[in-house]
Amino acid sequence: MPRPVALDGCEFDMTQVVLTDLTKKYLGATAPAVDRLNLECESGRLHALLGPSGCGKTTTMKMIAGLLKPNSGDIAFDGASVLHTPAERRGAVMVFQNYLLFPYMSVGENVGFGLKMRGVDKQTIRRRVAEMLELVRLPGIEARRPKQLSGGQQQRVALARALIVQPKVLLLDEPLSNLDAHLRDEMRELIRTIQQQMNITTIFVTHDQEEAVVLADRIALMFDGVLHQVDAPQRFYDGPVSARVARFFGGANFLPGQMHNGQFESRLGCFAVGQGAVLNGPALLTIRPEAIQLCAAESGSQQKNHLPGRIISRLYTGANTRVKVQVNEFTLTVIADPHAVDAARTGDMVTLYLAPERLWTLPIESP
Amino acid sequence: MERLRPYLMLSPALLIIMLFFLGGLGVGLMRSLNYMPIIGLTEPNLDAYVGILTDRTFLRSLGLTLYIAIASTAISMTLAVASGLLLRRSFRGKQVMTFLFQLNLPIPHIVGAIGILFLFTQGGFLARAAHAVHLIEQPADFPALVFDRYAIGIIAEYVWKEIPFIGVVVLAILQAVGDEYEALAQTLGANRWQRFRHVLLPLILPGVLSVSVIVLAFTLGAYEIPFMLGRSFPQALPVLAVRSYTDPDLNQRPQAMAMAIVITVFSTLLILAYMELSRRIVRKE
Amino acid sequence: MTNQTRLTHLLRWLALSALLFWLLLPLIPLLIWSFAFRWPFPLLLPESWSLRAWQIAFSARSGMLAALWNSLVIAVAVTLVSMLVSIPAGRAMGMHRFRGKRVVEFLLLAPTIVPPLAVVLGIHVLFIRYGLADTRLGVMLVHLSPIMPYAVLVMAGVFANYNPEYEEQARSLGAGPLRTFWYVTLPAIFPGMMVAGLFAFLISWSQYITTLLIGGGFIKTLPILLFAVAGANDTALTAAISIIFVIPALLLLLLTARYLTGEDAAAGGFGRV
Q1: Window 197-256 of C, Cβ < 8 Å to B
Q2: C13: chain B residues, CB-CB within 8 Å
Q3: Which end of chain C has fewer CB atoms within 10 angstroms, the N or the C?
Q4: Structural domain of residue B30, as residue ranges?
Q5: Is B188 a domain residue?
Q6: Which among A88, A98, A105 has CB closest to B189?
Q7: Is B18 domain-assigned?
Q8: DSSP letter string over C6-34?
Q9: What is the DSSP letter of B199?
């Protein structure tokens, strides 16, 4: 891939970030906030650090930025450890969730801050500030005060302020969380465009799986300071490594049983299963709610991967309808097209079809 | 009716201000102009002002008062910011130190002045300590730190009392500001000094300046500290004003009132100038 | 810990110790002197110790107990009035928008800029005329105006962060205005009231020149007594009475410390003590 040139005089070296056995334990805490984390962030890609609040993702990001010192482990940019490089010379720039535009400076002064710290002359700063504001599609607002900007504009100014120093790594803290729904799409698109245009290694943290999925090339999912799965977004739906991961990505239905030669045996019968993390022995079958097809009762519940059930509740949510279906002692949640289940009533008998290629087995979790 | 409610709720407080603040100021102003119809003075004049403004004693007192106020405020503010920064990070013993730091907040100035007196006189605690390490032979060798030319004792008392006062406000501001701005500036390449100069200082300055206005006003108008620790000539303006007011010669009263008005005018002017200056500094940041 | 951070810690600790030493230093001779009997130059500690000063202080002839009582009565009365006045005023400033608010704000804040001395001379003239000079009531009234800005500011801050919907909720559940105030409003504003009360008490407690001029020497509070004693050359007694003067203020601060958040813009009250 040829090295892309983003703007005049604004070329980025791609930087690969490698975290090795990274551990951080806060003073007085019983468990480490980040526990032996190993992660490789390919250069020039968008990576998400995803997890519920308190999972250690922000701690990890602050360690990459150099704002926190790890207790052990290493952080390397392009193969060279940066552990002993202070934050101000590390070249990993953070954009905070609440933007933190300096309230006593104009927008122009905010954007130019990093260059001023480096002693760049005023002329150059002025020119580069203008370029950066253009890049984030807010040209000509140098003289405004942060207070006069909307939340979305403030975030774009914060982004421009980070990009102007040509960071090796761009760190974004919950980049979409504070934005209204209609601004999210715009911002997502802007971040993706700039990131691709500049080919800048970007890591962002978020607690929102949707935000991670729409924005990231790769997602690293953390729980309780431990990395659980690093994969392309789609894999978290199609191939989660554990029930916890699957639940985090939208609550699947789980069915305990046994895997045998590509067959899953359970109290609801035998299913053909296309793939899974467990190919033999005790397993948990995950059935995503949107992977279940609702059919009329008479459409052959005796066939393979078909199950008879009774509708016990239905909830219309606008874009789809959530239907709960009782199958023996199990309740399965199905997300269906509202039109497809228009006629179905609570109490009706239905047949569920579980497509083998949409089924996935997981190891049984120790409680 | 509903529209009148806030005024109704404010009326007791405003009544107090009108009667016991504006009333006093107004009567003082009238008296200073020799205008007091109740006692038959119906022709206002500026005699009292002319009298004091041509009096060297008064002018020297005014100069001394301004010097004390500005020096005390500037020193207290600087040291308070420094101590706020020192107390800000977590370290062992922080709680105890913060407690001790705030201990003299409720201690009245009079007690502080007496403490400074015991400490600074030529037979005082510091002189004894100096003797113990063979710096001086006898009390007279110890430099005059109270009743002195440079009002060191007075300024020392103000600084002693105002450091914790401004410091507590600085600590609160620092806590409200948090350290994320500095962290952000650091990732953008700002070093330690740059983070202080370009980030922390402009963030805390407005609050620090507005609290030091209170200190400035207090040091301009306080009576008991310069009375206790100051020289008999020149005296701080409030001391001079009270002396003139309580003089058996009742003709001095208008002049005393005029001095009180001059203190008020200077206090107001100084604070306006100060606020304008600080606004400029903050904007420049 | 690296050498550099260890050095930073050491320097911070040294600087803080020097600062605290300076802040506590003026109080040390006071403590020692109050128990000293003979303490000639150049001794660092008294030659002989005694409780003489304390005995005199608590005897009737020193007038200390009477002055303490006077100070307490005045400060408590002034505090109660200030709190009663500042609750509605603070509510109006913190929660209502009305015409002339800026003027009112300016009026309320004016006493922070104008020294009490400049006001008290004129008030004295007024009070002589209306028979309030040389009375305890007169002294109490003159203490009120320097307190007003801080008490109202504290309460305005409290009410600015106060959600009146709790009151509406209580009313809709059947509480009358009085019970709503007692069960809903009061608990919510209680911490702020304690802070306003603390400032009111401390400001009144430390007043000297206003008490002297309006009380004309007839109303002997602790500061008046302390000044008289300090001028009379009994160092030990001066020290003892200073300590007696400080203790109620310190106790009150300790009792109310948990309500002080420091972020009150009105921590300014300490600047008047």
Answers
A1: 202, 205-206, 208-209, 213, 223, 226-227, 230, 235, 238-239, 242, 245-246, 249-250, 252-253
A2: 91, 93
A3: N
A4: 25-35+43-284
A5: yes
A6: A88
A7: no
A8: HHHHHHHHHHHHHHHHHHHTTHHHHHHHH
A9: I
The CATH number of C3-37+47-269, from 3.30.230.10, 1.10.3720.10, 2.120.10.10, 3.40.50.2300, is 1.10.3720.10
Residue-range domains of chain A with CATH: 5-238 (3.40.50.300), 250-362 (2.40.50.100)
Å between B175 CA and nearest CA of chain A: 15
Q: Is residue B263 part of a domain?
A: yes
Contacts of C272 in chain B (CB under 8 A): 214, 218
CB within 8 Å: B3 and C98: yes
- Which residues in chain B are closer than 8 Å to A62, comparing Cβ atoms? 183
Q: Which is nearest to C122 in space by CA: B259, B38, B222, B27?
A: B27
Judged by CB atoms closer than 8 Å, whether chains meet at C148 and B107 is answered as no
Domains contained in chain B, number: 1
A172 → chain B, closest CA residue: B184
Q: What is the CATH number of the domain that holds B242?
A: 1.10.3720.10
Q: What is chain A's pLDDT, residue by residue, as a tens digit (367 residues)?
A: 333 333 443 444 578 999 999 999 998 888 999 999 999 999 889 999 999 998 999 999 999 999 999 999 999 999 999 999 999 999 999 999 999 999 999 999 999 999 999 999 999 999 999 999 999 999 999 999 999 999 999 999 999 999 999 999 999 999 988 888 888 888 999 999 999 888 899 999 999 998 899 899 999 999 999 999 999 999 999 889 988 999 999 877 899 999 888 889 988 888 888 788 888 889 999 988 988 988 877 766 678 888 889 999 988 888 889 999 999 889 999 998 888 777 788 888 889 998 888 888 988 875 4
Q: Which residue of chain B has the CA closest to A27?
A: B90
Chain A residue closest to B281 (CA)? A104
Distance from CA of B279 to the nearest CA of A (A): 11
- What's the complex ipTM? 0.92
Which one, of A39, A52, A41, lies nearest residue A17 by Cα? A41
What secondary structure letter does DSSP report for B41?
Answer: B
* Residues B180, A65: C-beta atoms closer than 8 Å: no
In a domain, B6, yes or no: no
Tell the residue number behind the tokens 């060191």, with chain if given. Answer: B152
Is the distance from CB of B86 to CB of B80 less than 8 angstroms? no
Amino acid occupying residue B186: Q
Q: Which chain B residues contact residue A162 at CB under 8 A?
A: 187-188
Domains of chain C, residue spans: 3-37+47-269
CA A9, A13, A19, A20 torsion: positive or negative?
negative
